Amino acid sequence: MSKVLVYGSGGRDHCLADKYANSQHVDKVFFLPGNPGVLYTPKGKKEMIESVRLSDSNDFNEVARFCTEHNVSLVDVGSENPLSRGLADVLSQQNIPTIGPLKEFARIESDRAFTNFLLSAANVPKPEYRVFFDPVEAADYVKNIGYQVVVKANGLAAGKGALCCDNADDALAAIDDIMVKKVFGDSGNRVVIEQRKYGTEISFFAYLDGKHVLPLKMFCQDYKPAFDPDDHEAIEKFGGNLNTGGTGCYCPHKLVSDSLVNRIIKEIVNPVVNCIYNDYGWNYKGVLYFGLNLDDDNNLEVFEINVRHGDPECEVLMRKLSTDLFELGMAVWEGRLDEIKQVWNQQHYVDLIAMEGRSKASRGWNPGYPKRYGKGHKIEGLDDLEPGLAVYFAGVDTHEERGLVTYGGRVLHLISGDETLEKAREKAYRNIEKIAFVDHNKENASCMRYRKTIGL
Ligand code: GLY
């Protein structure tokens, strides 16, 4: 039997840990640094998944040492940040099988201008764009452009760096926030300004092993806006329907068909992978995430590429995938993806994200995610959920008296599966109502919030 280490601490990472723990080849999953929510799940209680604390989990040599000392057979790096700081480089140098690209290749996500360059080289359709280093030049550009734009911080911004603008004033404010106020830090030293596109968003994934590509023939839909489109009160209060890292997801996407999957592979995935392998000569081992838009005229365009699974996309895809993830992961490392058969079950899945909503602060109020949010609210109701649902934890902590408490804006994912999307939705919504985040400063009212239109 083998041991796996999942590097990360969020919902996607918890989900990957759970999926590896289901493998017939795995008897232990180390979750580093993990999160305390794992102890509230059956596999955590059975010590199948164990959160690991190192003196410094950002010291990648220490991570490598842990893997060697504990006979770890495979490391899966869940998020872009450690990849862009070279975790896969350190592990690969020590011959520790790792899923996740080297630092140089993680540029595909950490440098949007480079992504656009790659897409042009691969001749893949994408919206019109320009790159700016100077906020004054960027402002002049959007004043006169005449169509709506998305202003994107060039660097990493935890999935929140793309600001969709309705008009020139919004675009000027976005440039000011990103380039002058530096709300995303140095990631805003440059911006990419792109034509805003309307249509249906598709999140599409592929595994690469340095030689072959395994496009997942199943895709899902993420919901990035913070609020439901008809929640006018919240949208007005927050100054727009703010972008988030994702507020929910469903799978299969209503547009899944063999013909669209084949089209995505032919028009997007293969040209990009061909460029990576043959033009750049990169030995890329890991996941590629294609953020796509399909417009009403049936045009497919790429609006982002990431170097890891999506969050919350991973949570529904992994529930639907019946292939053993450890077998898949080892095939990535050993260049054997051509041997892997992808098998999908027949269920539909819905992921609702329970977020921190409006809560009382010691002085005043926290508006809630994605703006300032409170912490330390006791999470109640998990024991009342119907059997068969998955709960993956993200922003949680433990408190001496309150037990499991909230710690982040996106707190937990509740995933339900059923034979139709409608049944999966009903089950998810029926159950999320059983969960509460107890606002101890406000007569124990619940300050949990979730979107009501996931999967509609
Ligand atoms: N769900 C969007 C992301 O993971 O970036």
Keywords:
single chain; 456 residues; alpha+beta; Rossmann fold; Dna Ligase, domain 1; D-amino Acid Aminotransferase, Chain A, domain 1; 4 domains; five-stranded parallel sheet; 14 helices; globular; binds glycine
How much strand content do the residues show?
A: 25-35%
The CATH architecture of the largest domain comes to 2-Layer Sandwich
- Helical fraction equals 25-40%
> What name does CATH use for the topology of the largest domain?
D-amino Acid Aminotransferase, Chain A, domain 1
Structural class: alpha+beta
The poorly predicted ranges are: none
Query: Largest beta sheet, briefly?
Result: 6 strands, antiparallel
Structure description:
With 456 residues, the protein is α+β, with helices and mostly antiparallel strands. It folds into four domains: 2-99, 3-Layer(aba) Sandwich (Rossmann fold), CATH 3.40.50; 128-195, 2-Layer Sandwich (Dna Ligase, domain 1); 199-339, D-amino Acid Aminotransferase, Chain A, domain 1 (2-Layer Sandwich), CATH 3.30.470; 348-449, Phosphoribosylglycinamide synthetase, C-terminal domain (Glycinamide Ribonucleotide Synthetase, Chain A, domain 4), CATH 3.90.600.10. The chain is 29% helix and 27% strand. The protein has 14 helices and 26 strands. It has helices at 11-21, 42-45, 60-69, 80-84, 87-93, 107-110, 112-121, 135-144, 168-180, 232-237, 258-279, 313-320, 325-334, 421-432; strands spanning 2-8, 26-33, 49-51, 72-77, 98-99, 129-132, 149-153, 162-164, 191-195, 200-209, 213-215, 221-222, 248-251, 285-294, 300-306, 348-356, 359-360, 365-366, 378-380, 390-393, 396-399, 403-406, 410-418, 436-439, 445-446, 448-449. Strands 12, 13, 16, 20, 23 and 26 form a six-stranded antiparallel sheet that branches. Strand 14 (285-294) and strand 15 form a beta hairpin. The protein is globular and about 60 Å long. Bound molecules: glycine (GLY). Glycine is lined by residues 159, 222, 245-246, 306, 310-311, 313.
